[in-house]
Amino acid sequence: EAARAAARRALDIGRIGYTDALGLLSLRTAISDFYEARHGVSVDPGRIAITTGSSAGFNLAFLALFDAGDRVAIARPGYPAYRNILAALGIETVEIEVNAENGFTLTPEALAGRIDGVLLASPANPTGTVTGRANLAALSAYCRDNGIAFISDEIYHGLTFVGEEATALEFGEEAVIINSFSKYYCMTGWRIGWMVLPETLVRPVERIAQSLYISAPELSQIAAEAALGAEVELNVYRDAYRVNRDFLVKRLPELGFSIASPMDGAFYAYVDVGRFTNDSMAFARRMLAETDVAATPGIDFDPRDGHHTMRFSYAGSFEEMSEAVDRLARWLA
């Protein structure tokens, strides 16, 4: 509501125009204050860039950091847009399997061969994995000591239910941080996010952003600044997600969908459907057609082993979760 109210005021006075390519200083300062309050980390607002959603942040980071032919490590399973954007830029994706043996996250030991960049999400999509503080510190240090660019995708911060929520900024200023107002702040359609950059990347990112985007929409920036102060309202949604999560942790295995990775955070359940199918795409299509329950086939996130996994989202009401489970129970009976 705070975001909508701020946007209405801006519309009433006709405040809709271009801003600096890096964004409104007031919003960047508010984000700097957020890091100080939440993580005890001091961040110069001059190192913060406001982006048209986190998607633009990834584009800017990849363009500023890498050349065609560079090799960037990501987790498998992982967010498919990573590999798609990297491939479009001629950058080689090195997909590293994450599983119980490595804590479902990237580790220095897994980074074999030439690696020019590492991209880690915590909490992760689709697995929900939260990379703990010690593991994040180790990966940050490894990348710094070996001249590897490190991008920390923190767009699901605020939605951690198990484990420690740490930012890579706690371990130095070398990492590129990407965050968004879409997830915890529930502002998907506003298309607004941010980056925290090493000082040396501020001007390169600013120049690229000027050419590609001019600036993030001013109206969305104004709304986002207001949203930063709406934690009481937003935590109601977070707590509802937690209830949904706890419900699905119990009910999905009872249906025959074993949990494929710990549901530490975000709002996803990544499950093994191998008991029912070896073709997650066909299974998801049939499930949607016959029950009106939608899930994403694992093949989107894991081209090699995703044929027996699926991702359910629990970013809805408890009533929707309960109804979906009831429909699936009848369908699978």
Architecture overview:
This protein has 333 residues and is an alpha/beta fold. It folds into 2 domains: 2-229, Type I PLP-dependent aspartate aminotransferase-like (Major domain) (Aspartate Aminotransferase, domain 2), CATH 3.40.640.10; 232-332, Aspartate Aminotransferase, domain 1 (Alpha-Beta Complex), CATH 3.90.1150. The chain has helices at 2-12, 25-39, 53-65, 80-88, 133-145, 199-212, 218-227, 231-255, 280-291, 318-332, and strands at residues 48-51, 71-76, 92-97, 117-121, 149-153, 176-180, 193-196, 258-259, 268-272, 296-297, 309-313. The strands form 2 sheets. Strands 1-7-6-5-4-2-3 form a 7-stranded mixed β-sheet, sandwiched between helices. α4 links the parallel β2 and β3 (92-97). α2 runs parallel beside α7 and α8 (231-255) runs parallel beside α10. It is globular.
- Give the termini distance in whole angstroms: 42 Å
Outline the low-pLDDT stretches: none
Tally of contiguous helical segments: 10
| Name of the top-level CATH class of the largest domain | Alpha Beta
Structural class: alpha/beta
The oligomeric state of the chains shown is single chain
CATH superfamily of the largest domain: Type I PLP-dependent aspartate aminotransferase-like (Major domain)
Using the CA coordinates, give the radius of gyration: 20 Å
Strand order of the largest sheet: 1-7-6-5-4-2-3
Helicity range: 40-55%
Classify the beta-strand content into a percent band.
5-15%
What would the principal axes of the Cα set say about the shape? globular
Mean pLDDT: 97
Which CATH architecture of the largest domain would you pick?
3-Layer(aba) Sandwich
Q: What is the fold named in CATH at topology level of the largest domain?
A: Aspartate Aminotransferase, domain 2
Major beta sheet, specifics? 7 strands, mixed
Write the element-wise H/E pattern from the N-terminal end onward.
Answer: HHEHEHEEHEEEHHHEEHEEH
Number of strands: 11
| Number of structural units classed as domains | 2
